[in-house]
Fold this sequence. Notes:
It is built from 17 helices and six strands. It is mainly alpha-helical. This is Protein SirB1 N-terminal domain-containing protein.
Amino acid sequence: MNSISTTGTASSFLLTFSSTSSSSSSSNFSKSQIYPSSSSSSRFTCRNQLNPREDLPFILHDTLQTSGIDITHAKDAREGFCSQIKRLSKIERQVSIAINASADLAKTALLIAAEDDALVSHSSVPLPVKSFLERLDTLSMGFVSHYSLNLRSASPELFLDGLEKYLYGYKGFRRAPATDLPESRDLYLHSVLTHRSGSAVMLSLIYSEILKMLRMWGLLNYDVEIYCPRDEVHFPKGYLKQKSKLSDQPYILTQQSLLVEILRSLKEVFWPFRYDPGRSLFLRAACAAKCISGPNTAEETAFERASTKAAQHRLERGVWTSVRLGDMRRALAASERLILLDHDVDELRDYSILLYHCGFYKESWHYLSLYKNSTISSLKPNRYSSKLEQMEADAVEELKTRLNLILMEDNCTKPSDFRNSLESHSEPW
């Protein structure tokens, strides 16, 4: 059976966590069930039957706490995030970000940043979410004082043109430079407010928050949509909702799509496996775990192997932001929040393979089983719309087979060579 253990090892650049908390969480996993929504095969709701108010257990916070790392601020930020997204009704999730909803989108984005900041900085003070919300209010008030015309009497076109000149001209907000992998600071709201450079999604969020504030002050009495460009050049712009066209729909962010895009961007930036950008994140991780075989599998070059060893050496010294290995903590955090957002069942699969690379085989198996159970009725056996989907399905089967073999062995729920990179208190830069 030793050969099974060797096969089951995630890869030569395995990131490991202390799994002393896995025994306590695994009992909760067995009590969790998934209830597919009848409206969509990709929708799902996960709840713990022992405690209906408790979502599926995640490993990140408990593992860090077990390792002796203070997670107070990270935990508070996560709880705040959950509180905000629970306020969004099914209808509100599908409305434009320019419309006031029960959840505070700006605060939610800042809570995402606050958790990630706490995970990597180990700061004794939390990210000042309230201060950055006040900065947004100041930005809105600045537009009112800067605008020379009467806002109430200005036409919608003149009003919005003035707002864009104020935001992108006078205040100097700009699109982040187009790169294959964006800077992480361009994806966090507090950094964008500080450096005035960010992604189109973040600029759209700031634009919408100004509109919401102006509407609350009674200075905006018509509906506005925000056009979020998908290219790498143009800026988000507002226009009168009455002039919207069907072709505009893909460029209009909803409450849910905004949060999904924020989290998926962070997940991609911090995903620990960077090769083959044409493949999905899951396939990159599956390839690193040797869960893909056949003619489509690219051989790892000597340069890639050398990069892997160098990156692992840096991680062992507490440097987590390598070119090859990204940041496992923040990748896990983004995956957990996406599952909580209850948007796409594929997030269960992606989280599962991250857990596999971390050595949490029981938890990985449970999340993969939840994924399989939720998709069993959505796809016909052996019928996929693309080779990519076929490769993903094959990798899922290979991963599940390997996990089953690993879990059949005694004392093989964690790697024998167990180095906990999360125990390091070194700064990540």
